[in-house]
Every structure is written in C-alpha cells, then in structure tokens.
Amino acid sequence: MIEVSGQGGQIQFDGQYVTITRKGFLARATIGKGEKRLHISQIAGVQWKPAGAMVNGFIQFTVPGGNERRSAFGSQTSTAAKDENSVVFTKKQMPEFEKLRAALDGAIAAHHTPQAQAPQAGSLADELTKLGALRDQGLLSPAEFEQQKARLLGG
Length: 155
What we know:
- By secondary structure, the chain is of the alpha+beta class.
- The protein has two domains: 2-112, PH-domain like, CATH 2.30.29; 121-152, no CATH class.
- The protein has helices at residues 24-30, 76-80, 94-112, 121-136, 142-152; strands at residues 2-5, 10-13, 17-22, 34-39, 45-49, 57-62, 86-89.
- The strands form two sheets. The protein has a four-stranded antiparallel β-sheet. The chain has a three-stranded antiparallel β-sheet with strand order 5-6-7, covered by helices on one side.
- The radius of gyration is 26 Å and the shape is rod-shaped.
C-alpha cells in the first residue's frame, strides 16, 4: 500500500483502489471533508504537474463523465486545489507522489492489457473425447491417440 500526504488531502493506493481523503481545516475550506474512492478501471488519465521552487505541484485523476475544473494559464495549481479529484503537493512531498504516480501508471496499464485466456476445462475434456472417438473409429492409431493426448495435456 502506498500512502502520501499533500496539501489538503491524502491518497492511498492498494493496487486496485485510489482513496482520496480530506481532513482538517484546509480540506474543509476548499473541497470539504470526506473520502473518495476510485477503482483503477474508473481512471481514464492522470494529470501531473511537478512542483517547482516557487510553486506547488498536483496530481489529478480524470474520470469518464467527470467534470474536472479547467484552469486559465498560470492558475493550474490553484484550480487543482479546488478539484475533488486532485491533491496538491510541495516540492518536498513530490518524491513520494512520484512513486504513487509510477505505481498507478503500471496498475492502469496492466488493467487495460488484454489477458491471455486460459483454456476452459470443458474444452480440454471435449478435445480428449473427440480424440477417443477418432481412435475408436479407427481413424487414429493408439500411438497417434497417445501422442495427441500428451500434446493436449502439455506433455
């Protein structure tokens, strides 16, 4: 589990869910106290602005159908501070947020990568039944049957 604290918000990531928690006066003054939980499948994008010597940075989660706040040039960070899907961080806090960002990028990419489908148990049994029928009909010799069976069973 990765946990980071920023200005007016904390983020936890357990590999599946991103939880944004707001506590204290700053949270109450900008967005309001509470917790927001997003599954990685709900996150369409992650916007990142690094912190500089004189300005804070932020991480913002884009959610399909969400209403992210648009900002004018030069006011991105102050606009992000008022967005419920964003957490602002200082230059000192940035290394921890970079680790969070890398973990999120990996998890989102893995979630959207098609997984190889495992063969279904029924299909293996069906194939063995078909081979047995071919052997019984004399279309496969016993040796050919054994060879094909071993291939199906990964031997």
